[in-house]
Amino acid sequence: MKALLVNGSPHENGNTATALAEVAKTLNSAGIETEVFWIGTKPVHGCVACYACKKLGHCVFDDDPCNALVDKIAKADAVVVGAPVYYGQPNGALLALIQRAMMANSAGVAGKPVACIAVCRRGGATASIQCLNMPFQMLDSLLVGSQYWNIAYGRTPGEAAQDAEGMQTMRRLGTNIAWVLKNLHNEGASALPAREQWSPMHFIRE
Ligand SMILES: Cc1cc2nc3c(=O)[nH]c(=O)nc-3n(C[C@H](O)[C@H](O)[C@H](O)COP(=O)(O)O)c2cc1C
Fold it and tell me: How far apart are CA 69 and CA 123, in angstroms?
């Protein structure tokens, strides 16, 4: 089984990548393959509502990562979407790609575990997760959660690795995705998975 991890950041090795890598590590240790799909830094089209994709199964714009994403999602058994928070929202390029990819092939996520992650310096992560979840909630996918909302905090690339609770949240998300996948595919994982004990890392110290 394979999980696709979509890195929606313009930074290939930024905090979104750090968070996704923690999920990947846990999935890999549960025997699930992972592949990262980085959306890159080139311009991305917004949906122009031509609906041509409904017949084509692909977007009419073939000069950005949308159609490659459509194909990768179709082949994946699970999908994890990671976004940096920009002004309290997921970054625009990722949103544009997800909207177009889901219009082109909504069946690609049906019946599959999907999870959305937001990474930010300080604020806007829960609103961003809610926004990212929206398409998947109406496309028959199985949204997976963790011990907390799927958030990691950090500003400069890699800083999120210092968010111990955030990294634990990512590992637990990976554990839960693996558990859902194994149950869906009858690989005998019906009891709830063993999980790390939650270690909340409060910002304010006494
Ligand atoms: C245009 C822009 C807007 C941002 N807006 C927010 C914000 O609303 N809240 C926040 O906490 N961080 C904000 N940030 C900081 C990023 O979310 C943060 O640096 C994040 O770790 C970047 O992830 P990356 O390294 O994967 O690109 C913003 C960054 C940029 C470039």
Answer: 28
Q: Which atom belonging to ligand 1 lies closest to the Cα atom of 153?
A: 21
- For the chain, domains (ranges, CATH) are 2-184 (3.40.50.360)
Amino acid 189: pLDDT: 67
Q: Mean pLDDT per 10-residue run, the chain (206 residues)?
A: 98 98 98 98 98 97 98 98 98 98 97 98 98 97 97 96 96 97 84 83 69
Cα–ligand 1 centroid distance for 151 (angstroms): 13
List beta partners, residue 118.
Answer: 83, 151
**What is the per-residue pLDDT for 199?**
85
Model pTM score = 0.95
Q: How far is the CA of 96 from the centre of ligand 1 (A)?
A: 17
So what's the pLDDT on residue 194?
81
Q: Which of 81, 85, 132 to mutate to test the pocket of ligand 1 (most atoms within 8 A of CB)?
A: 85
For β-strands 2-7 and 78-86, DSSP reports them as parallel
pLDDT at 197: 86
Residue located nearest, by CA, to atom 20 of ligand 1: 120
Ligand 1 atom nearest to 89, measured from its CA: 8
Whether residue 85 contacts residue 95, with contact meaning beta carbons closer than 8 Å, is answered with: no
The single-letter DSSP state of residue 77 is: S
Enumerate long-range contacts of 91-94, CB under 8 Å, 24 or more apart.
91/8, 91/9, 91/10, 93/8, 93/10, 93/39, 93/44, 94/6, 94/8, 94/9, 94/39
